[in-house]
Amino acid sequence: MTGTPRRHPRLRPTLRLRLTLLNGVLLVGAGAILVLLSWLLVRDALRPTDELLPGTTVLLADGRSMDAAAWQRQLVDSASGELLAKGLAALLAIGTVGVVGAYAVAGRALRPLHQVTATARRLGETTLDQRISYSGANDEVAELADTFDEMLDRIAAAFEAQKRFVANASHELRTPLAVMRTEIDVTLSDDEADAAEYRRMATVVRDASERANSLVDALLVLARSEAQTGRRLGRRTECDLAAGTLNALSAVRREVERIKLDVHTSLEPAPVVGDPGLLDRLAGNLIENAVRYNHLHGRLWVRTGSDGQRSWLVVGNTGFEVDQADVPGLFEPFRRGGRERTGARGSGLGLSIVRAVCDAHGGTVTAVAQSGGGLEVTVNLPAADAASTGENPAR
């Protein structure tokens, strides 16, 4: 078996080479200008006979007599030639030393960039813990290395969150599927099973399939909401949070009556601009959670309103006690306030969907644990007028 032939890197204008050449050109150019100025100054300065009368002669040290003008020309030519020869030799030496030094300094300065490249090439699912950890001077290269390390931290955190999400989603889907398969296998293995037994089995399978279907729908809504975060919404329509909240309350009316909840509402207009489907799901999730995790003869309060800059939706409920320190974790997928996933109703995606929808619309969501049990969740979104002018007061 033959592998792919290894490609040898061709000579290319690397940053180190370009910096070296630039330094060399600047150094040699500056030296050449200095040599030229020195040559011109020497030629202008060596004119001692300009003030002598024509025909004046000078007596040299060897006893010879020579015309002053000819002696001056000989002196200027000799000094200029010697200056050029020595100047060019010095320029060549300085240029060589400067280029070599610039190449070494550039290599040392760019070493962290090579570390970034090497680290990026080594990165994989099992090597996301590697970092550059640059400890040199506090310059632009150090800033780049630190930024790269911070980016790796975010990627590693996102990768871990994705793995946990996939594991939790698999666990959630496995439970109803296992229930369905068990019921079907047990019923089919019973030779004396009658129509009533098959009807019971069908009811269990239907309930389990509805749970799996609800989970898949919630996952799709969550993915759709997170895909809009930081981007322009696919749909932007002016709508009212109060109207969506009223529809959500109507959808849970029977459950509210069953557990005899005391409902208080104050639904003032709360105009916003965004995706109507996602905003309806936001209100629906908050109302459904407030009913699902309430208790018999509990309370449910809902408020909406706007001040022209922001619109808000507040949903509060009584229920089991929640530690305020655990509240931020409730907005993570598959978290149900300390309840085991397999023992509670719902998919555990309600508040994570609410947070994703808020992020997609440039808003915020906060929750406060109530003394005696329960939770109050507050959603703030840019009002319709503020959103149309590009303001974002909710942040």
Automatic annotation (TrEMBL):
Keywords, sorted A to Z: Kinase, Membrane, Phosphoprotein, Transferase, Transmembrane, Transmembrane helix, Two-component regulatory system
Reaction catalyzed: ATP + protein L-histidine = ADP + protein N-phospho-L-histidine
Domain Histidine kinase residues, every copy: 168-385
Xref: InterPro entries: HAMP_dom, HATPase_C_sf, HATPase_dom, His_kinase_dom, HisK_dim/P_dom, HisK_dim/P_sf, Sig_transdc_His_kin-like_C, TCS_sensor_his_kinase
Main location: membrane
Gene3D superfamilies: 1.10.287.130, 6.10.340.10, Histidine kinase-like ATPase, C-terminal domain
Transmembrane region(s): 21-42, 83-106
Pfam families in alphabetical order: HAMP, HATPase_c, HisKA
SMART domains, per the entry: HAMP, HATPase_c, HisKA
EC number in record: 2.7.13.3
Domain HAMP residue range list: 107-160
Protein localization: Cell membrane
Keyword match Isomerase: no
A GO-annotated cellular component: plasma membrane
Keyword Transport belongs to the record: no
GO molecular function: phosphorelay sensor kinase activity
Protein name: histidine kinase
Organism this protein belongs to: Micromonospora maris
